[in-house]
Amino acid sequence: MNVGLTEYLTVATVMFAVGFVGVLIRKNTLVIYMCLELMLVASTIAFVAFSRFNGTMDGNVFVFFILTVAAAEVAVGLAIIVALFRRRQTVQVEELNALKN
Amino acid sequence: MADILFHIFAFITIGSSVAVVYNHNAVNSAMAFLIGLVGVAGLFVLLDTFLLAVLLVLVYVGAVVALFLFIVMLLDMQGGERKAFSKPTAVAGLIGAALLAVCAMTLIRNFGGLETAEMGSIVPVGANLKHYAEQLFTTYLLPVQVVGFLLLISMLGVIVLSKKFEGMEDVK
């Protein structure tokens, strides 16, 4: 069997779905954040695969930007989590219910 | 050979993604995430985008996962005892699993349905560093500058966020 675009897209889709499930069911903010990153990386696989099979450059350049933005996002997000932990002494989403009701 | 490698890397990637979600310990999750990223870098190499594979390892494995591990160490999360899933969480998990199943069904039913050329017959433009430079400094010049500015702003934001503010204890 020759590996083509479909196989790469399958990997990307499954990885994205696993990350999505992780965001929904995990309680730890840090792990939720890791699952978000998982979804971002899954989308980059699709970008690179499409770019490769179309013979164009645009998908690769997009992945370049996604990597940069993801790095900035992680820095800010983790700073927010640390600030949250300093104030509330927890990172479990169930206990962070100040906006409830 | 490339096919066997694809299957190995795909297995590593998906297996460690599941491990990220499944592991109780945040450190183990971060480690599984690291292995998964190496698998993704392998997939990028198979797609002839060597620069992106190296960048993924440098940026994600070198910076992001290291930052995650650092924060896990810093916060020292106890929370070992795991509560049972609440009802909304169970429903959300079911919806997510259903989404996964629908995706898998669509892909399996249309397997081979996408008409694409053979990989060997397409010129691997992503393998050439010169093409990145051409694109980044002509078509995508403005986005490059915007992203550079974004990095500066995020650095300032992190500094402000991690600063201790006096007299803000009432914000609880």
What does this structure look like?
The complex is a heterodimer of chains A (101) and B (172). Chain A has helices at 5-25, 29-54, 58-88. With 101 residues, chain A is mainly α. Chain A starts with a helix and ends in a 13-residue tail after the last helix. Chain B is mainly alpha-helical and 172 residues long. Chain B has helices at residues 2-22, 26-46, 50-75, 87-109, 129-137, 141-161. Chain B is extended. At the A-B interface, helix 1, helix 2 and helix 3 of A face helix 1, helix 2, helix 3, helix 4 and helix 5 of B.
Largest sheet of chain B: none
Distance between the termini of chain A: 56 Å
The radius of gyration over CA of chain A amounts to 17 Å
Q: Decide which structural class fits the backbone of chain A.
A: mainly alpha
Please, how many helices of chain A? 3
Tell me the series of helices and strands of chain A, N- to C-terminal. Answer: HHH
Distance between the termini of chain B: 58 Å
- Percent of residues in helices of chain B comes to over 70%
Nearest-integer average pLDDT of chain B:
84
Shape of chain A: elongated
Work out the helicity level of chain A: over 70%
Largest interface: which pair? A-B, 73 and 86 residues
As a percent range, the share of strand residues of chain B is under 5%
Secondary-structure class of chain B? mainly alpha
Give a quick account of the main beta sheet of chain A: strands, pairing sense, barrel closure: none
Beta fraction of the residues of chain A?
Answer: under 5%
Question: Number of DSSP helices of chain B?
Answer: 6
Helix/strand order of chain B = HHHHHH
Which helices and strands, and how do they pair?
The complex is a heterodimer of chains A (101) and B (172).
Chain A: H1 5-25, H2 29-54, H3 58-88
Helix pairs in contact in A: 1-2, 2-3
Chain B: H1 2-22, H2 26-46, H3 50-75, H4 87-109, H5 129-137, H6 141-161
